[in-house]
Structure formats: C-alpha cells, structure tokens
Amino acid sequence: MNEQSIATGALISPHDYRDGYASAAVAEQISTQINLPVSYKTILASPMMQALEPACVSHSVVDNLKLYWFRKTGKWIDFSPRFLDILAKRFDGQDRATGGTYPRLVFKLAVLYGCATTATLPNDTSLSVLNYRDDSKLTPEVFAEASQYKIPGYVSVPLDFQGTRQSIYLYGAISTLFQVGDELWTPSWADKDIDPLRPPKVILSGHQMSPFGWEDNVYNDLQNEWSDKWANKGQDRYDPKAWSPYIIEQWAVAEIPQDVQDFLKALPAPNNFHYSWQRDLALGDNNDDVKFAQIAFMILGFLAPIPANELGIFGPKTAAANAKYQQAHKIAPAPNHIGPQTRAALNAQFAI
C-alpha cells in the first residue's frame, strides 16, 4: 500500500439550523457541573481498514455506531462502513469516483436506515472506489438487516476544549472533522513519527476521526480507521487547543427526546423552505409571519436556535437577528421592524 496515497474525504456539512434544537435538548447533560476525571478512555472496537477508499466519514461514524450498540447489547457488532458510504452517494451530490461526503448526512442516514453488517455487505477496501461504491450492492436484504440497527439520533458537539471532553465523557466517543496535511503520514506511519499528531502546515483535505478520551490536561486520544498499522495500533494523541483552528465539526450518537423529535419533524428543511411575507412586522408581534422570519434567519445563520415557545414572537433575539440581516443586505438598520425592504430581501431569497 502506498501510505501517502491514502484517501481522505470529509466535507464540511451544510448548515442546518435544526441541529441546534437537538443539541439544546440534551444540553442539560453537558453541564459545567460535570466533574471530569483527570484521565478517561473509552474502549473502542479495533480499527478497520479504510485503505484507499475516500470513506473516512462512514468509517468514523461506524466507530461510534459500534460503541453505541455495544453499550446497548454488550456485543461488538461488525458494521460495514461501506453501507453508509454507498448510501451517502445517493444523496450528497459528490463525485462517486473520488469525492468524500458530509458527516451530518451520514449520521442522518444511520438514523433513517441503520447500518448493515459485514456479513451481508463485506467492507472490502481492496476494491476500486467505483466497485466499493457499487450501488447495486444495497439489496433489499441488506436494507432489511440495516434497519435493525438504526441509531436514535445525533447531536452537534461543541468545538471548545471543555465541551469536547464533556461530550466524549457522556457519549464515549465522538466523530470529528479535522482539516489535515501530510503530517498524518510523514515521515512514516510509525508512532514515533506521528505522536502527538501535528497540526497541518498546509491543509490538504478534510479527514474524519474519532476522539475517545484523554490522558492529561493537554492531550486527547483519537482513533483513525486507516488501519492498526497507523501510529499506536490506529490510535494517537492530539492537542485539541493547538488543533482548534482545524477542527470544523463534531458529532455524537445521542438519544433525542420524543417531543423534540416531533418538533424537529415539523420544521422545514433549509433547502425546502419557501415563504412570502406580505405585511410589515414589529417588535411584540406574535404570528406565523414572525415564525417564518425567524426560521429564515436561523437558516441563514443570523439567529441561533430559539426555544419552541419563542417561535412566532418578535422579541429581542429576533430584533438582533433582523439587524444583522439588514446590515448584510445594506438596508438602513431598523431592528424592531421588518419593513418593505427587509421583506423584499427575504422574499427574494425564499421565493415560493
């Protein structure tokens, strides 16, 4: 194997305002009151063999699925990353021959479809990329087996040092998109050349790996699915503070309360949202026009997710988001009013 030809392939997930609701629903568990131990390590299943496939996202997600189901059943289930990788190619719009995929999408697919095992879909990474991603391999029998292993949900994990460790402690492991350079494989794969993992001097790609613990107040531990030949049997240390500029997103398998799941299903997907605002709005208003303006601001990133009981109410948070939106569109600032110019801009972006 040409170690320097190992394919990476984690792409930054498109923003989805609904993720914040799921994270907020379990936020009470991620509290500054958690007394983290000085060191903590989860036992993960042995590293797989990603080899030359640009399937790091599905391999890291499967790391997390194996851990989730081990905690549920006491058994290590040999899930096939190939199932999620092939399935992602049905939805991600990326080149099937070379492209990576989005972590959020793969977690979503694990919720909707589950994951097949290697008994029905071998994870043969010696295949060419196109053969590895042969969609005809996803037979009804494969889907039927996968449906037994759906995960209950997923959450976006905070990127800061404390939030990362609290999430690892709560969920056992997380899946992280790192921006990486050739430091991952040069001058060799030997642990002495890799440990601790060096931040990139030149970013070459995104790569998904699975943090699962820490040793002291500096280093976290992660697992890389390239193989057990990499670093220390597929595992290594990294300094999350030094890596902070290169850590883009993090996810974990999580139980989402049913009422939150129902609420999320009622919210429109970002790429499916269309609306027409026909009247001016003002601070204190409470109606659907305000609700959908809030959704528009959340989709665009001007408004952080707000509680369900605040949807539809034009309050201070909405006014602040409105001001940011107006500034971005060179509209004379009027935070407490959504007037003709602001409505026209929103209608142009979310036209029915």
Report how far apart the termini are: 52 Å
Helix % is 25-40%
Strand fraction: 5-15%
Uncertain runs? 1-5
- From the helix content, strand content and strand pairing, which structural class follows? alpha+beta
State the order of secondary-structure elements, H for helix, E for strand: HEHHHHHEHEHEEEEHEHHEH
Number of helices: 12
Number of domains: 2
Rg over CA atoms: 22 Å
Return the CATH class of the largest domain. Alpha Beta
Major pleated sheet: 7 strands, antiparallel
- Overall, the morphology is globular
Number of distinct beta strands: 9
CATH fold call of the largest domain: Cathepsin B, Chain A
CATH homologous superfamily of the largest domain?
Answer: Cysteine proteinases
Descriptive account of the structure:
This protein is of the alpha+beta class. It has 2 domains: 3-253, Cathepsin B, Chain A (Alpha-Beta Complex), CATH 3.90.70; 268-349, Muramoyl-pentapeptide Carboxypeptidase, domain 1, CATH 1.10.101.10. The protein has helices spanning 19-25, 56-73, 81-88, 103-112, 129-132, 140-146, 161-171, 191-194, 258-266, 288-300, 316-328, 340-349, and strands spanning 40-41, 154-156, 175-180, 205-214, 220-223, 235-238, 247-253, 281-282, 337-338. The strands form 2 sheets. Strands 1, 2, 3, 4, 5, 6 and 7 form a 7-stranded antiparallel sheet that branches. It has a two-stranded antiparallel ribbon with strand order 8-9. A hairpin with a 5-residue loop joins strand 4 and strand 5 (220-223). It is globular and about 65 Å long.
